[in-house]
Structure formats: C-alpha cells, structure tokens
Amino acid sequence: MSYKLPTFRHPDLPENELGFTKADYEGSLSTLCAGCGHDSISGSLVKAVHELSIEPHRIAKLSGIGCSSKTPTYFLGNSHGFNSVHGRMPSVVTGAALANRDLIYIGVSGDGDTASIGMGQFAHIARRNLNMVYLVMNNGCYGLTKGQDSATADEGSASKKGDPNPFNSIDLCATALQMGATMVARSFSGDKAQLVPLIKAAISHQGFAFIDVVSPCVTFNNNPASTKSYEFVRDHAAATGTVDFVPMGTEITANYDPGTTHEVKMHDGSSLHLHKLAESHDPLTRRSAMNTIEDYRESGNILTGLIYLDEGSRDLHDTLETAERPLNELAEADLCPGNDQLNALNASLR
Ligand SMILES: Cc1ncc(C[n+]2csc(CCOP(=O)(O)OP(=O)(O)O)c2C)c(N)n1
Ligand code: SF4
Predict the structure, then answer these.
(1) How far is the CA of 113 from the centre of ligand 1 (A)?
(2) Is 80 in the pocket of ligand 2 (CB under 6 A)?
(3) Does the beta carbon of 33 sit less than 6 angstroms from any atom of ligand 2?
(4) Per-residue pLDDT for 250 more than 90?
(5) Whose CA is nearest to atom 5 of ligand 2?
(6) For residues 57-69, b (16+ Cβ closer than 10 Å) or e, as one string?
(7) What stretches of 167-225 adopt beta strand conformation (E)?
C-alpha cells in the first residue's frame, strides 16, 4: 500500500504570499484510524503555517512516541523533523533550539508522552521558557498501546473497555502554568476556527507556548462514559473568549463594539485580538488564569481558548544571553578568540 497523498491537486488552490498552496505544507497520507482527532489537528497545523506564509524549511517538528507523535509524518513534509524517544522530545528540542535559534520549533506529544513518562522533561522545558510551540494531542488514553487510561483521564471517566478511573487527573494547562509557561491555551481537535489562530499565536510567541488539544481516540475512548469523547467535549467545552490572530502589517477591517476587544501586541509585530472575554478572566495575569482553570474544573466543564499570555516573556536565549547568530553557524575563529584574549581573561580573574 502506498502512503503517499494523491499528486493531483485542483489547479486553482489558493496560494499564500510565498506562492505556496496548502499542498506544499502537507505530509504523507495518515495511517491513523479514520476519525481520529489527531488528524484534524494535523490539518489545523497545515492551515496555520500556510496562512502565516512560513517557508517550510524554517520549521523543525519534533515528537516523542504515540499515535500523536506519529503525526509529524502527516504534516509539513518539506520541513525538518525528528521523531525521538517516548517522553524525550523536550530534551531533543532543547538541544536543537540552543544550537540553531533561527528555526521555528513545533513539538507534538500525547498525554501519555507528556503527563507520564515525559512529565519531568515537560516541567523543565516549560520552566526554561524555550522558544517553541508544544502541542499535546490529549485523548485521555494511550492510543498506540491499545487504550489504557493516561494521567489526564478524568476521575470517573471510563474508556470503551475500562472501569471508571479512580484517580485524580493531571490538568496539563495548570501544570504548564505552574511551571512557568508563558503562553497557555486549550482547544478541541474539532474546532478549527479556534485552534488555527491559537497555533498562529503560539508560533509568534517568543517563549514556551503550550496548547493542550482535546483529541478524541475513536477506537478506545469515544464512548458515552468517557469525558474525552466527541459528544462530551461538544457538550461541555466553554471558551474564555474568542481570539483573532492579526499578522504584522494587516489592515483591520472588522468593527467591534468599544470595550469588547483587547489587543495584545506580539513580539514579532503581529497582534492578538481577544473578544468577548469572560469578565472573571484576565489572560494576561497568571493568577487569574489559574483561578479560571480551577473554576471550570470544579464545574465539570472544559475550558478552551487562550488561558494565559505573558507579554513580557523572555525566552531561554534571552536569559542565557546567547549570541544572535545561531551557535551552529559560529566557526572556530568566532569560538576561539586566541591566546592573548585568554591570558587577559585569566589575568582578570587572579
Ligand atoms: C520507554 C517506552 N515505554 C513505553 C513505551 C510504550 N508506549 C508507546 S506509545 C505509549 C503511550 C502513548 O500514549 P500517548 O502519548 O497518549 O499517545 P496516543 O497514542 O494516545 O496519541 C506507550 C506507553 C515505549 N514506546 N517506550
Ligand atoms: S488508536 Fe486512537 S489515538 Fe491511535 S490512531 Fe486510532 S483513534 Fe487515533
């Protein structure tokens, strides 16, 4: 069987500013189960990067192990990619990002990959504020190994063949926030209208941008007793507000009632327009974000949308004061300034 997408495309597919169509950002044909939420997220990633007119070679996509971690094969086929070890994507992306700060890093993981085996790595990559998008395709189970409950399965939720989960669940947005992530959002694989602008904002954000995307596993965890099923999410998802991503230099054409929209300037000159925010929620304050997560958790609903954004984020390169030029471009002459300089430095320390 061939895993290549058909090469025929409609001749009038819309082109972005670089002259690329969406097809230029697709990957191989997906081998996931038909209806898996992960495939919809791959579609949203393709749409976001195409609309942002990013050259594919400027992106590196990395993942761990799982059905979710297989998806980088199905999007951005012309970008760099590295499929690492279970739960170890954060250390691999940290090394890559420190060596080459010029690439845009998109890490894809699962709730098993992140909230169990990779929890230690996840905590520290958030704490260090590495400049990357970290997206979890969250189905509350280990899809690839046949549907065991994961650490994000809600208490009382039951998968297709399982008993109700007796344990408290880990809320990855709360964890990311607690660990120091500078952008935190949650969405649903079935809500492209919400997810695409969040992905664009995460790519523009200078720092660790975390997106938890509820993504139903149709094979093992899409039954009525599951809180990660399509039906449950559709009935219980409630957004903090709506988000428009406005690229740099774009003319604003829509009119909003005064006081209903808040504009947030992003580091790269683009902006986020936040509309109809719930009164009790201020996404620019960590404490408010934490309270909102807790309020929704108590009410049994699923909080979606932009939860937190730190406008003054300083990423790992800022903190370490690394050179503007990517480290992998520095030659020996740049790295070894010579004996005289070394002697002078040593003398200054005596
Ligand atoms: C070190 C190691 N331990 C265990 C496994 C087995 N394993 C493969 S994928 C996986 C969990 C996948 O779950 P998740 O990350 O939620 O992804 P999903 O398949 O649900 O998208 C496990 C336990 C492994 N591959 N490597
Ligand atoms: S087993 Fe579940 S998570 Fe894996 S591809 Fe199938 S539906 Fe998706």
Answers:
(1) 6
(2) no
(3) yes
(4) no
(5) 32
(6) eebbbbbbbbbbb
(7) 183-188, 208-214
Does 160 contact ligand 2 (Cβ within 6 A)?
Answer: no
Instruction: Dump strand ranges (E) for the chain.
Output: 59-63, 80-83, 104-110, 132-138, 141-142, 148-149, 183-188, 208-214, 237-239, 242-246, 261-265, 271-275, 302-309
* Distance between CA atoms of residues 133 and 169, nearest Å: 23
pLDDT digits (tens, 9 = 90+) for 60-88: 999 999 999 999 999 999 999 999 999 99
Residue 1 has pLDDT above 60, yes or no: no
Å from CA of 283 to ligand 2 middle: 32
Residues near 149 by beta carbon (within 8 Å), at least 6 away in sequence: 140, 141, 157, 159, 162, 165, 167
Backbone angles phi, psi at 208, to 5 degrees: -80, 110
Can you tell me which residue has the tokens 């070394």?
A: 342
Cβ atoms 187, 249 nearer than 8 A: no
Phi, psi at residue 9, to the nearest 5°?
Answer: -135, 150
- Cα–Cα dist 27/74, whole Å: 4
Q: Which ligand is nearest to the CA of 217?
A: 2
Å from CA of 149 to ligand 2 middle: 13
Pair of tokens at residue 13: 């597919």
Which positions ≥6 away from 188 have C-beta within 8 Å?
194, 195, 213, 214, 215, 233, 237, 302, 304
Residue located nearest, by CA, to atom 24 of ligand 1 = 86
Q: Name, in order, each residue with C-beta under 8 angstroms of 218's C-beta and a sequence gap of 6 or more.
A: 33, 34, 35, 36, 37
